[in-house]
Amino acid sequence: MTKKRVLSCIQPTGEIHIGNYFGAIKNWVNIQDRYDCVYGVVDLHAMTMPYDPHMLRENTIQMAVDLLACGIDPEKSILFIQSLVPQHTELTWIFNCVASYGELSRMTQFKDKSEQIEDGSKNKFISAGLFTYPVLQAADILIYRANFVPVGKDQEQHLELSRNIAVRFNNQFGEYFPEPKPLLTETSKVMSLADPTKKMSKSLGEKHYIGLFEEENSIRKKVKSAVTDTGESQGNSMSPGVENLFNLIKACEKQEPYEQLLKDFNQGQLRYKDLKEVTADALVEITQPLKEKKNELLKDKAGIEKLLDDLSGKAREIAKETLFEVKKLTGLPVRNL
Ligand code: TRP
Which residues contact 202 (CB under 8 A, 6 or more apart)? Predict the structure, then answer.
């Protein structure tokens, strides 16, 4: 039986943090045998917000290296760089004419991100790319005719739009695209250490996240200063900060210490110092081998670039087939493809 295809992508935001890892990447690694996996680093998406060209190029390679270090296996999966598969942008144009202005206007991420762009009163610039961002995302998914997309809550609306585009395309031009469905797997949502009511994110600032490849000392320091509770006793309910540390221990699969600490908590005997120590130890243990793998990979930068070119070439082959069929269906010339 042929395997179903899974597609997912990540923006090149710089070094992966433990929230990315436990919330998504670890799962990407785990499902590589069960599915035909295609993963992408979406540099074109990163251009929708103000950015620095030099950083974009650096971060794109960095993200690809990080994914390989985490265990994305080029023998099993395709790992591509989005801009190296130009068919994505071509399909985006075609989809721009299938998606409606109205549905794009309802995308909550567009509203959130356009508000994030600093209001320098006169200089507030919101690119049209930010508006059509979800159409490019639909092209990422549909160009590989993916069956499943592992996504978090924040991307559900975009996936729904991708499904709508697929259905509308099929109705208008003929049945071609499978409807991509969310792949629901158990992942851990990691919250900010300094403000555990918010999801861990680099944009919140240095003390809010832990980089997956951060030095041991720095990991320990950040865990030590993690917000636990706000002072007042809360009876038996766990404060968000404490819950976050418990979740991290669980995400690191430290079942025994987890249960012991939980028992302490339930008996009102938990010492935050112990909780933090166990958390820090678990994180250091999990991240150590990944760091070593990354250092190993970085010894051969030219080799990495060649690997990414080759894998993007594989992605291009699939993308070309799709575009050929799409052009046939939509009335565009298909000579010389
Ligand atoms: N928009 C996604 C994010 O910010 C990244 C992304 C781009 C993506 N294309 C995709 C995710 C296709 C899944 C499938 O996280």
Answer: 13, 14, 17, 208, 209
For the CA of 45, the nearest atom of ligand 1? 7
Cα 263 to middle of ligand 1, angstroms: 39
Identify which of 43, 92, 149, 155 to mutate to test ligand 1's pocket (most ligand atoms within 8 A of the CB).
Answer: 155
| Those residues with Cβ within 8 angstroms of residue 324's Cβ, 6 or more apart along the chain or in another chain | 334, 337
pTM above 0.85, yes or no: yes
Domain 202-295 has what CATH class? mainly alpha
Mutate to test the pocket of ligand 1, among 27, 140, 148 (most ligand atoms within 8 A of CB): 140
269/271 Cα distance (integer angstroms): 6
Tens of pLDDT, residue by residue over 299-310, are 999 999 999 999
Which ranges of the chain have pLDDT less than 50? none
Tell the CATH topology of 5-189+301-330: Rossmann fold (3.40.50)
Q: What is the pLDDT of residue 1?
A: 76
